[in-house]
Amino acid sequence: MSTAATPTTGPDHLWTVDEHLEDILATVRPLEPIELQLLDAQGCVLVEDITVPVSLPPFDNSSMDGYAVRVTDVAGATEEYPAVLTVIGDVAAGQAEPLHVGPGQAARIMTGAPLPPGAEAVVPVEWTDGGLGEGPVTGMRARSQAPEAAGGHVHVYRSAEARAHVRAKGGDVKAGDRALDAGTILGPPQIALLAAIGRGTVRVRPRPRVVVMSTGSELVQPDEQLGPGQIYDSNSFALTAAARDAGAIAYRVGAVADDADTLRSTIEDQLVRADLLVTTGGVSVGAYDVVKEALSSVGDEDEEGAGIDFRKLAMQPGKPQGFGSIGPDHIPLLALPGNPVSSYVSFELFARPAIRTLMGLDDVHRPRTRATLTTDKALTSPKGRRQFLRGTYADGDVTPVGGAGSHLVAALALADALIVVPEDVESVEPGTEVEVVLLG
User: Is 111 left (phi over 0), alpha (psi -120 to 50) or beta?
Assistant: First the structure.
């Protein structure tokens, strides 16, 4: 992995959002492909085109429970003048040697069973007396309950066209067709298709393993008692959930106290199971911002080329950021600010694209659109900062929720979009068209 870029203008250089993101995406590389069992490949990205080796369905089969017949034998059949056919037996799904349907004959057939030789169509059981001689029936009785129905005669009350209620061989996909393209994310329908064409394993890029940890001696785990000056740790839960939502296998590490040695040791312990590390908190300029203290000199102690660069970005929220790599394998690390809104917005803008890049996806960003700002008064934004405000989006309109404070978790929970205010805009009037990042 290449070294994170360092600003040429010194430590006070103010990075743009685009510069920081570009540096991250230029550094992070897709994970190497591996062969996985189908269920283990769920959520992974294919690295090969999948060609169908066998047609689906692999043979003509019935789409109904009913009777396999010849078209001429049921032509003109009505309830008053039914066609009376000799039942020669049952054709069940998975049956190896189907019966042969000759003139004046019918075979009782189950849904999914192969169309027997000689038969040209299937008449649903509801069009017949079910072989019981008591008029139209509503369903087919089990052989164990009515063995006589598998033999004798059946009265058919309606005619059928050729191929009626028959699923054609290759009607879904034909042998030689491309089933899935490289780059496809494997969800339940794709896994179903792979299984249906006989693929038990598939070559994919694995889901990235993301380790999330928050820092701060004031943080307490949910369900524990709060002490003076303490707050519950929400960031590690939010970002772990966000990492999973992005497609990663995410591991949450409980809050680490404000001690540089402890933090450095904890991070080193997590390297064995991480393709990406995300920390939150401790990246500003306070006396207890231990992430900077723990990692600023990591390049002097680790393999050549590793190191974390701490930056200031021209954005709100989320001005303090850190990025680089750590350990002998140069595992990428994103150090995000500690305020809840700042950390979440930073994750969406920087960590999510990094995860999607590790997965090998081409489109790594949240979708964006234009929307009309609906609000009672103009929005203000600091000059020279790209602001990301929480909002709700519906039918082409976006409405701000909460204020600009980076601690407003309740407002964040209501938002499904981010309103983007460019660096050169200090006020946005109601009714203005704005750019929106869709989070849902």
Answer: beta
Window from 2-11, 137-146, 386-395 with minimum mean pLDDT = 2-11
pTM: 0.82
CB 94 within 8 A of CB 109: no
Cα–Cα distance measured from residue 299 to residue 170, given in angstroms and rounded to the nearest whole number:
59
Which residues does 316 contact at the CB level (< 8 Å), separation at least 6?
A: 381, 382, 385, 386, 387, 388, 404, 406
Strand partners of residue 121? 69
pLDDT tens digit sequence for 4-32: 444 445 567 899 999 999 999 999 999 99
Give the closest residue to 222 by CA, choosing from 236, 202, 242. Answer: 236
Q: Taking 50 as the threshold, does the pLDDT of residue 299 lie above it?
A: no
Measure the CA angle with vertex 34, ends 29 and 40; round to 5°. 110
3-state secondary structure the chain: CCCCCCCCCCCCCEECHHHHHHHHHHHCCCCCCEEEECHHHCCCEECCCEECCCCECCCCEECCCEEEECHHHHCCCCCCCCEEEEEEEEECCCCCCCCCCCCCEEEEECCCCECCCCCCEEEEHHHECCCCCCCCCCCCCCCCCCHHHHCCEEEECCCCCCCCCEECCCCCECCCCEEECCCCECCHHHHHHHHHCCCCEEEEECCCEEEEEEECCCEECCCCCCCCCCEECCHHHHHHHHHHHHCCEEEEEEEECCCHHHHHHHHHHHHHHCCEEEEECCCCCCCCCHHHHHHCCHHHHCCCCCEEEEEEECEECCCEEEEEEECCCCEEEEEECCCHHHHHHHHHHHHHHHHHHHHCCCCCCCCEEEEEECCCCCEECCCCCEEEEEEEEECCEEEECCCCCCCCHHHHHHCCEEEEECCCCCEECCCCEEEEEECC
What is the distance of C-alpha 325 from the center of its chain?
27
